[in-house]
Fold each of these.
Amino acid sequence: MKILLLDAQACDVLRGQLADLLMDALDLERRQALCYWQDVRMAVAAGTCRLLAASHDGTLIGTVQLDLCQRADGRRRADVQALTVHSRARRRGIGGVLLRAAEAEACALGRDALRLAAEPGSGAEALVHDLGYARVDGAAGSHSVYAKTLLMPEAA
Ligand SMILES: CC(C)(COP(=O)(O)OP(=O)(O)OC[C@H]1O[C@@H](n2cnc3c(N)ncnc32)[C@H](O)[C@@H]1OP(=O)(O)O)[C@@H](O)C(=O)NCCC(=O)NCCS
């Protein structure tokens, strides 16, 4: 398995596979899935989003996004969004690998304050708890909000 950091061009090349992955996770029509990834592509091109994907034998099996906060007081913040693993590839550690890869990318960008939303009682909640995320006040719809502060390498 490889973890890829997708740029806008890669989003174009892989748009069909990205749509397949989203339609596996959500009850969406292809047109809606393609529109979703077009929005993500624009955010990637604008530099406000990092998109990482897990690939096995040339097929995408999972993705995660890092939404980079653009507020002046949020330069160290990133929101982990849409962590998704294909239903046929779950419980093999791929979700954990993707989340750790997103953390490494956040660290490289100097963003140590991570947040994400997970459904209470879900597998995602178990996963993020295992990786050191702690529940914080607030909610995102029916989801609870979790936070983690990354340990950044000290400047020499
Ligand atoms: C949540 C999700 C990304 C997990 O991906 P995954 O590749 O299956 O996760 P992993 O195999 O890395 O799981 C690591 C650990 O998390 C926990 N976990 C993951 N899925 C679980 C589930 N369905 N039930 C209970 N625990 C679960 C377990 O502790 C697991 O370790 P184990 O398999 O040794 O018991 C995947 O189920 C998914 O895409 N769900 C739909 C979208 C979603 O809910 N995204 C989360 C947004 S935060």
Amino acid sequence: MGLSCPKCQSEQVQSISVIVSSGTSLNSGTVVGIGNSGAGFGTTNGVSQTNLAARFSRPRGPSWFLTIWLSFGLIFTAVWLFQISKLAPIVPLAIMVYLVRRDLIKSKEYKAQLAVWERLHNHGFFCYKCGNTFTA
Ligand SMILES: [Zn+2]
């Protein structure tokens, strides 16, 4: 006997890891895009997913890369402003502190989301009849 949904007792259930791996496909091909400057060709190495697979896919963490880049810019701005006024560098430095703090909060939330996701991904099932998600 197969597994059944605890909500509607349907046996049309599938493990979430299977949904994610079967719904995710690697695309590599040529795309034709028409932009403002006319038509163009390009190659893609993208990942395409079904809506269901996308719903259960791994959460994304904060983009530290962008924050680090912005921080460099802000430090240079602070050094430059210091030559004009001793107090002016406070503004870019405050922005930097804000950005780093924001990413730290995001990173904390991400860790919590990832823990939930891992549990669901490794032990979770999805019911095709009622849309219920459960762990077994
Ligand atoms: Zn169900």
Amino acid sequence: MQVPVHLSDHYYEPGRSFCGLYIVSKIELPDFSPTAELIKIFNRRGILLLNITSHQKDYVTHDFVIADLTGKEAQKEEILGEIRRIFGQRLVSIECIDTGVPGFIYNVKGFPLIFNFSENYSPVAALSVHTWKTLFQGLIKRFGAGGMTLLWFMGNDAGEGKGLDLVKLKGALSNVERMKIAFARLQSFGWGIFELVECDDKENRIVIRVRDNFEEMAAKEIKGYQNSFLRGFLVGLISILFNSPCRGIETKCVNKGDPYCEFVIRLSHIKGSGCRSP
Ligand SMILES: [Zn+2]
């Protein structure tokens, strides 16, 4: 079973009293974990937290919690008092969040959005699948099949860039392991669920299966659309990892009724015979 990962939670319900608290405090393990204490404080009052996010650095925790205090507004001051009392000297600061819009709450300090790879933080700028859809539609409307070529090149450049990152990873990793790390990253970025089905570089054949891929989700209503961006990306990634030009075709596609999209990438070990086109 797949479990959704939340980017950020926003709540808007006119008439409700949402409470957003931002608490900075020191961790003292094993005796005191700020996040666990916060959950206990709300649990004891029978208040379910709508959201809790935690960021830790140098033994300081930044917790942000959202609770629905509709009908329990009077408890807010009590909760603040309880946190101050229980946290004591370990409390660095506590703040109530006001978004300026009644009934609306989100983590106002939540920025930047980061992808954490062993404490290397990459900022991420996310687009909803719906926004991707409008981008794809616009490209196809203006440039027709040329729009898909454009997407292929964009994907290809991005895939090559990702390949160069992976080549720099320390340790003795095989190409299969590097690809697995790349696919894990793409899954975390919301691009889909990737599976390396076959990797036979002697036969020059690499088969990748993708379920729930974002490009297909975004483009399913665009007639005749093919996974150009993703195909370009996989070709770019694999050409860098295997240090060989390659070509990719999509052999199965959810748009054609298959249960997943499947890409076959073929390496060309003959130098100079490579391609950099869709
Ligand atoms: Zn497809």
Amino acid sequence: MSGGAGRVERAAVGHDESIAAQRRWWDGEAADYRAEHGTFLGDSGFVWGPEGWTEAELSLLSPAGGMPPAPVLEIGAGAAQCSRSLRAQGVEVVASDLSGGMLRQGQLIDAIAPDHVPLVQCDGARLPFAEASFGTVFTAYGVVPFVADSAGVMREAARVLRPGGRFVFSTTHPIRWAFPDVPGVSGLSAHQSYWDTRPYVERDARGQVTYVEHHRTLGERVREIVAAGLDLVDLIEPQWPERNDQEWGGWSPTRGRVLPGTAIFVCRKPLA
Ligand SMILES: C[S@@+](CC[C@H](N)C(=O)[O-])C[C@H]1O[C@@H](n2cnc3c(N)ncnc32)[C@H](O)[C@@H]1O
């Protein structure tokens, strides 16, 4: 959560209002976000979340542990670090994001990196790609926590995937919504209902939404996946590794030793 609000509340926000706020927020924060997290992510790194587990360690995109079936689409790619990591291994990949500012950060990396990736600006819940055009779709903390219509994200991933292809996404673990979003020990005392799925909203003095995050319970996530026609292959709740002593907002070693911070859903489009 952004932490820089005028007014904070838990209240319903629709898809279009949410998208407009996200685009403004990520455009405005893009350079600072990269300055703060760029080293942790790596210009060509593939990190699934604040715990620091990489795709090379978890092998979630490919059942056999080799390269993921191509072409690969990343949604909510930010500066496209994950896509660049795949590209460096010879994988055909397209990186997409809602925010032109975040994609611009990707272009700045591309100006000095050997492995460029094609960039597309779009909403991950409304993809401008044909049916069955990708072998793999994924996102590491992009799109899913930020959209009102997360069921639409599942449907779109299913639509653009080929039969047998995987959609893998990491997002905030739903249990975190019961706890204060702070990294220290006070973040270990549950203070609100896990089942309250109203989004977290920040508004400016005029009442305009400046930032929003959306919550689903685990059961709701599973139901959205299944309703989109995808199979849920695995749900990873990665433990905090001893090697990582860095905090990322409310994600920290202190909390990570006790509570899951990230959920990674591994889904598959059934064979026709
Ligand atoms: C936390 S970043 C994750 C990206 C990258 N993995 C990283 O760690 O920097 C979230 C990204 O999701 C993007 N995003 C938010 N809502 C989106 C949407 N509806 N469609 C596509 N991208 C979206 C933001 O612009 C941002 O780049």
